[in-house]
Every structure is written in structure tokens, then in C-alpha cells.
Amino acid sequence: MNPTLTLRCSGRPVGRYTYRPALGARLAPRPYLHPLSTLGGAAVTEEMPDDHVHHLGVGLAVPDVAGHNFWGGSTYVRDRGPTELDNHGAQLHQEWLQRDPDGSGFVEELSWRTGTDHADELLHERRTVAAVALDDTAWALDLTFSLTNTSGGDLSIGSPATNGRAGAGYGGFFWRAPKQAAAPTAFTEAAEGEDAVHGRAADWLGLAGDGWTLVFAGATADTRRDPWFVRTAEYPGVGSALAWSDRLPVPAGETVVRRVVTVVADGRLDRDASAAYVRKAVGA
User: Fold this and answer.
1) Helix (H, G, I), strand (E, B) or coil at 277
2) CA 137 to chain CA mean position, Å
3) Residue 125 · residue 146 · CB < 8 Å
4) Whether the model pTM is above 0.90
5) Rg of the chain over CA atoms, in angstroms?
6) Which of 182, 168, 160 is closest to 232 using CA atoms?
7) CB atoms closer than 10 angstroms to residue 82
8) Separation between Cα atoms, residue 49 and residue 72, nearest integer Å
């Protein structure tokens, strides 16, 4: 049985966090949040869908850390395309630094490991997750991660885009939303539609489906500079891209920090309502 904890907002269950999942190596085992729901009960995440079985709700997934795959599935190799490689790593839960007694959040230590029996640590992560009440129809998932290079040498984070696949700069925070009869609508303060928002930086990005809206906001300057990876037509998913067009260097002993706050609301929000929720959730 996979160990889990229940995430609560003002005493109400809004999700589950699986922190030691029993997954095959090709799925790049890692802790993740699923299911997550609105306060009204609408599902807003999907786990292991048929179209991308390695998509696991909400969490961190990076396809290239010094050549190791922490995303799952095939690896994009320059001049070869998607290639099956035995290069998958795992994010392993180490310990809880804090678990809020009301179930509203936690602070966790994780180890990003590769090699036989996951003997080699590349990164050490501190992850902070909190469910924050906004009003009767919306709450916010506040997720911060700090990745410290503990490999003993310099490394870098890449993506299929940095390896030659244009537009596929995904890797970092990623949210897989559920498929519905109609594709969701993606929008920012200045643009609308997948083509208009994909690969562009924006303070916040909305994804509106049937009965729910997610509004993703970068809560630090570094996070706001990362472009958004957006899919609506093929499948519904949003990520904040660490290595959109260039590899992200992480020198030995250095730390990368990002914070994404996601408003989870019932109904379809317009731009003004989305921006107001972001101001309330992020404090900007």
C-alpha cells in the first residue's frame, strides 16, 4: 500500500499526497499530489492517464538532470528523437521536517537519486506544501521547492527543447489536469489560447475547464521569469519551465528555488477574478 497523507483546507479534505509511491522505474518514481479537488468537489488532477502514463497529478518532474530522466517515459535525444533509455531516476522521501496538525501542509526532505539501487544522489530537495483558504469557492496550493546540487560536481538541468525538440521546454513544477469533453481554455492577463501563452512568461496563467479554474502564479521573481509550458488540445497540463531554451546550470553546492501558488476555484473565472485571486493568494 502506498503511504499517503490527506491535505486539508480549513478542515476540509482537498487532496492526497502519495509520498512513497510503488512505481516502476520507467515512471521515474516521485511523490505527487492526486487527487486534488475544488471546494465543491470537482476533480482537477489526473493520475497515470492512458495518453501519458508517467503524468502523476501535481509535483516536480524534470526530464534531464545531468542526463538522467526524472520525468518518466522516453528521453528526447538530439538527432534521434524520443528514445527508450535506462536512465530514470527517483525522488525519494527522506523525512518530514514539519506536518501541520490540521493537515493543511508540510515540509519535506527528498533525495533525487540515480544508479543501481538509487545509490547516487544528484540533488537534495526541501519541499513545502500548504493549502490556503481564500473564500467559500476557492483555495490555493502553495508549493515551494529548493533543489541543492549534492553530486560533488557541477551539473545542469535540461529539457527536450535544450536537446533539440523546439517548444518542448518542460520540466519543473507540473500539473496534469483531467481530460473533459471539451479542451480547457488557457489565458493570461494579455493573451488567450494555447499558441498565445505557451512558451511565454507571465505573472499568472489561467486554465479553465468545465466546472473549475486553475490559476498558476509565480510567487518569486525567478519563478515569474520561467516560461509556462501549456497543453490544452492534446491533453490539459501546465508547467513552469526551468530550462525552456537553455540548460539551467546548478554549480556544486548551489541551490535553485522556485515557488508556484495555484488558485483552485469552482466555476469559470474571467481575467479580473483570476487576477484578484492571485493578489489574494500571493500577497502581491
Assistant:
1) helix
2) 23
3) yes
4) yes
5) 18
6) 182
7) 12
8) 13
Name the amino acid, one letter, at 266.
D
19-67 pLDDT, tens digit per residue, is: 999 999 999 999 999 999 999 999 999 999 999 999 999 999 999 999 9
The two counts, helices (H) then strands (E), for the chain are: 3, 20
Report the alpha-carbon distance of residue 53 to residue 59 in Å, rounded.
Answer: 15
Determine the length of the chain. Answer: 284
The amino acid sitting at 7 is L
Where are the strands (E) in the chain, listed by range? 4-9, 12-18, 32-36, 58-65, 68-70, 75-77, 81-83, 90-99, 105-114, 120-135, 138-149, 155-158, 172-176, 185-187, 204-208, 212-218, 228-231, 237-241, 248-250, 255-266
Q: How far is CA 200 from the centre of its chain?
A: 17
Q: Which three cell numbers stand for residue 264?
A: 483552485
Query: Cβ atoms within 10 A of the Cβ of 267, count?
Result: 14
- Read off the pLDDT of residues 137-161 as tens digits, 9 standing for 90 and up: 999 999 999 999 999 999 999 999 9
